[in-house]
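Task 17 of the worksheet. Students: predict the tertiary structure of the chain below and write it out as structure tokens. Keep your answer in the requested format; marks are given for formatting as well as content.
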Amino acid sequence: MTVRRLDPILVDRIAAGEVVERPASAVKELVENAVDAGARRIEVSIEGGGRKMIRIVDDGVGMGPADLELAVERHATSKLPDGDLTNIATLGFRGEALPSIASVARLEIVARERGAAQGHSIRVEEGRKRPVTPAPGAQGARIEVRDLFAATPARLKFLKSDRAEAQAVADVIKRLAMAHPEIRFALSGDNLTGFDHAACPPGPEGRLARISQILGEEFRANALRVEAEREGFQLHGFAGLPTFHRANAQAQYLFVNGRPVRDKLLNGAVRAAYMDYLPGDRHPALALFLSCDPREVDVNVHPAKAEVRFRDPGLVRGLIIGALKQTLAHGAQRASSKGGTGALDVFARRAFGGPGHNANWDWRASPAAPAGQGFAESTQAAFVSTPMADARSHATPMDAADLDSPLGAARAQLHDTYIVAQTRNGFVLVDQHAAHERIVYERLKRQRSEAGVERQLQLIPVVVDLDSADVDRLIENAAILAGLGLVIEPFGPGAVAVSEAPALLAKADLGRLVRDVADTLAEHGTALSLEKRLDHVLATMACHHSVRSGRRLTGDEMNALLREMEATPGSGQCNHGRPTYIEMKLGDIERLFGRS
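Model answer:
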């Protein structure tokens, strides 16, 4: 077989297959060029999902005629001044984007250098370059791509609908906009909802403002600031409360040296950090920015620069997990704003009449008005004559210190399940079982890490009948369970005996506990690491010891639970990712009644 040199245009089209997979890939490369050119305003327009037309206008440094001539040549770039591939400080560096795009579409560039009297343009049609000519234009560059993949029609068959391709373009712009809040980004076109994100001021507040432009103002109300540094790596950004979770990972934005990435190492670190707070099928919302010396990360491992490789991946993983866990431990006592907002929405939908509906109502004229006594007297009599089961906290005078505490002072218990607490500027509603479940879980984890879970010997071992497969599974993990305070041994065919149990679970139904632990091991098996399996088992144990729904609590018990919640990491949500309480401000309540 004869070896021959490929036609240069064919070479460009092969390169385009790696660099330009879809319209969003072309947009990404071109916008990154604009960012590297120092633009402070970038406007993107598309038609037909980017297939028909892509136009990108920026106010960067622009290009002169000589630069334009070279820019559409393969492996020509302004971004490697010293040719060192280990020290890449820009988003683009391969020198393949423009010639690759031009080989499969019609490309036109109009650019004017900063300080130049006029601009110049160049056109490339399906790989064939035209001469550079003078052209009017503002400072910066305008790049227009038409009929993408017209030269390779087979590629068109693999594209999705115009709407899907347009949404992919929007996602690319959002990620780049989040990485560079100091730049104004605008997107317009068919099959999408356009936006125009104004430039934000420097610093954390500006960063949060840009993130909120993209993820919505609700994220701002549920965001925790993340700051950490270790051995030359800096991590900053914002992480959503665990109760502010999503069904997929689309609301996770990760960046390395200003470059949006989708990296398995980083995604795995995020999952590990939230493991204690979220069920496996839910995902947090966050935006994290990792900065380091360019020599510590290889951005040249993927043709589209979507993945990176770190010199010390263990250091990076540990930094992210540690920073997120610390942030969540201190901030996850907060309740998600969605709880109170959702409650307000429910109340508003069910309200009768509008504001001021009963402004002129006189209780004395009501057919239900009591006869022969004042309203205050009748109200007091009504409270005395009705059961006080749901207002037991009134038996104890309200302590001003409790009222000033974050979760307030307990005032009542509803349906033997929910605690109503009054704060200085509103009230909170607490799910007593969910709250106590988190408290017990954190206690067990602390005991395990410090000196092992404290055990209590059973005077008479508890025998639990089980399926033979469950027995095998429990015995196989007996050493692990013993480390968690649960000592079991085989007791004939189809049964185990519990001789010791965690002291915290002294009053638990051990038979039910063992069956649930067996189910947990069956569900997760060996697919999880040892640490994750331990945490899942501890969470199962915590659920058994928690204050159950339907148990009546005294005022002192309710206040004690509130104070312990305030001192417990992550107490804003239970072990299943559900909120343990919701908070409503007095101003919101007053608006419901038209008082403000």
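Marker's comment: The chain has a mean pLDDT of 81. Residues 103 and 315 are 42 Å apart (CA to CA).
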